[in-house]
Amino acid sequence: MGSPVGITLDRFIKSKQDDFPFASGELSQILRDIALASKIVNREINRAGLSNISGAYGSTNVQGEEQQNLDVVANIRFCRALTKGGEVCAIVSEEDDEVIDLQNSSGKYVVAMDPLDGSSNIDVNISIGTIFSIYRRVTPLGSPIQLEDVMQPGNKQVAAGYVLYGSSTMLVYTTGRGVNGFTYEHSLGEFFLSHPKMKAPLDGKIYSINEGLDSQIDEGLKQYIADCKAKNFSARYIGSLVADFHRNLLKGGIYIYPSTTKAPKGKLRLLYEANSLAFIAEQAGASASDGENRILDIIPDSLHQRTPLYIGSTEMVKTAEQTLREAKVH
Ligand SMILES: O=P(O)(O)OC[C@H]1O[C@](O)(COP(=O)(O)O)[C@@H](O)[C@@H]1O
Ligand SMILES: [Mg+2]
Ligand SMILES: [Mg+2]
């Protein structure tokens, strides 16, 4: 087998720089900073079983969820890379209660991130991920960071992406001009373009939902799941949003994390889970909804706000929305 030849992530970012509205290189630098941090996190994840880095950290995050050591390590690595990179003024992270103000008066961008997604899968050697969104700050440079800088609707994203730490490690991102995926070559320490111009199938035969929630979901969704079963669709649920989303993006399918009686707004976070993946989905020809409305048009009202999520092949998302609507009418 030959060594990989082709376009490195770095070269690709450089070649696309002129696509950006202001083309001054800052956004490119942020993408490079994220790629660098992801390589470090990838290394930590790969040796998690051998070191004392796996396991619980002994505290809970703002969501009341138990933090894992790797959640904390990944958060530190990404924050450090974005701080040193110098282009970012504020970070919203799943692992931090408040906005992280980097006190960087020249930073034009804001990053929202889930440093490690699917962290309950770390200790069992199953795919996990990182999710990020990038926005341009809206208040003048040099002035104090305001909530309007960090709580923008998803349709204002200038870039979004995810890293999947799976059977291979991939970085997938969009700057609003399609979606491209890169696979990490460990021995060379480089991401190479492996999935150019990703397009999701318009329809699919995979549905991904935690069916343990069955007793807590509404009739419309029960009906939609019953319809999927009647059509002999495959049920696939890893329990890591990034991995479930990535599979369905490539193969055609829908991922659902619904509103439940216990959690009417669902579980997933709007700013750094739903919005980021919704931007990528739409850029790849797929769709993302909260069951009624386009995810990217939701106006955030709090930093760690949750939203139900129906994301994946456009025809499947449409059918799910329609089934929910009809059940409400009857
Ligand atoms: O166990 P559940 O309720 O099905 O939840 C699974 C979902 O929760 C998450 O793990 C939440 O992400 P975090 O690990 O970042 O908190 C998603 O990745 C996943 O899809
Ligand atoms: Mg997550
Ligand atoms: Mg997380």
Attribute tags:
single chain, 330 residues, alpha+beta, Fructose-1,6-Bisphosphatase, Chain A, domain 1, D-Maltodextrin-Binding Protein, domain 2, 2 domains, eight-stranded mixed beta sheet, five-stranded mixed beta sheet, 8 helices, 23% strand, globular, binds 1,6-di-O-phosphono-beta-D-fructofuranose, binds magnesium ion, EC 3.1.3.11, hydrolase, metal-binding, Fructose-1,6-bisphosphatase class 1
The radius of gyration is: 19 Å
The count of strands amounts to: 15
What is the CATH superfamily classification of the largest domain? Fructose-1,6-Bisphosphatase, subunit A, domain 1
Q: Let me know the average pLDDT.
A: 93
Largest sheet: 8 strands, mixed
Shape: globular
Task: Tell me which CATH architecture of the largest domain applies here.
Answer: 2-Layer Sandwich
Count of separate DSSP helical elements: 8
Structure overview:
With 330 residues, this protein is of the alpha+beta class. The protein has two domains: 9-195, Fructose-1,6-Bisphosphatase, subunit A, domain 1 (Fructose-1,6-Bisphosphatase, Chain A, domain 1), CATH 3.30.540.10; 206-329, D-Maltodextrin-Binding Protein, domain 2 (3-Layer(aba) Sandwich), CATH 3.40.190. 31% of the residues lie in helices and 23% in strands. Strand 7 and strand 8 (169-174) form a beta hairpin. Helix 2 (26-46) runs antiparallel to helix 3 and helix 5 (219-230) crosses helix 8 (314-329). One magnesium ion binds next to strand 5. It is found in: Cytoplasm. Its cofactor is Mg(2+).
